[in-house]
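Supplementary Note 2. Why include the ligand at all?

Several targets in our set were suspected to adopt different conformations when bound, so apo predictions alone were not considered sufficient. For every target with a known small-molecule partner we therefore ran a joint prediction. The input for NAP is given below.
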Amino acid sequence: MTCPTEDAEEREPGTPSARADAPRAALITGGSRGIGLAIARRLAADGFALTLSARTADSLADAAAELRAAGASVTTVAADAADPEALAALLDWHARTHGRLDALVLNAGMGFGSPIDQTPLRRLDKHVALNFRGAFALVSAALPLLRATAAVERRGTRVIALASLAGLTPEPDLAVYSATKAAIVSLCQSICIEEASTGVSATALCPGYVDTDMAAWKHDMLAADEMIRPDDLAELAVSLTRLSRNAAVPTLPVYRAGGRLVGA
Ligand SMILES: NC(=O)c1ccc[n+]([C@@H]2O[C@H](COP(=O)([O-])OP(=O)(O)OC[C@H]3O[C@@H](n4cnc5c(N)ncnc54)[C@H](OP(=O)(O)O)[C@@H]3O)[C@@H](O)[C@H]2O)c1
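The joint prediction is reproduced in token form.
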């Protein structure tokens, strides 16, 4: 297969170009711990240059120091992934620093449970703002660079979004979280459909309970060592970046062995 090339003269004004000579690059939200950091480690080991983002500068600095000690090229940007202006600045930083975007990992997320009739609308608004609106804003802004990178990279480029099994089959008391993750599943399908000709595709990773800070509240009912490992998600994420551009994987459920094959 020949790799499409981008003719600078044919580019529309404002369309970014991508650096064919730079290492493959990934931008990861929520990259300072948990699943995001596990994905960062694995992508760095595969040669990706990284932009890591999260709200807390200190934990980002710790994560970056660990990755650099292992030889990774990492920059960090503290940003709230619910704030579209902060996300625009994050993307701009990534584009100027790395010159290309091969993998956009939409990982930052939140989840607080309550029955539907005891869920204040402000809780719904916070979930939507981070889990869906922020993710949508970042993808929307990043698509020109993802397309430009796909034009110079034979494997194409990928959006990898952390949804959840709850986005496929809602769990009790997680109606709002489940709905936002279902929206992410739908968004990844839309990206695959709309971007089919550009070399950009998207995958909603849909795991059951993963042993991270976010799932610690569940330990009374489910031991940490029975949960999916963050490294399992990292292994899947890096595998997606190794596929040819001809393979689209819009949804990837990851069940806990021994668990129900629906829900967690
Ligand atoms: N753990 C599970 O069982 C599980 C299962 C299915 C899906 N998921 C999904 O996987 C993703 C990662 O979860 P995790 O378990 O790895 O969580 P985690 O261990 O709690 O880590 C969350 C990461 O996101 C960052 N973050 C949180 N709120 C943010 C915000 N508003 N803006 C920017 N960054 C933010 C955190 O750093 P700061 O706090 O410093 O911002 C941290 O780096 C989430 O989308 C989650 O819904 C998790």
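Residues 1-11 have pLDDT under 50 and may be disordered. The longest strand covers residues 200-207. Comparable summaries for the other entries are listed in the accompanying table.
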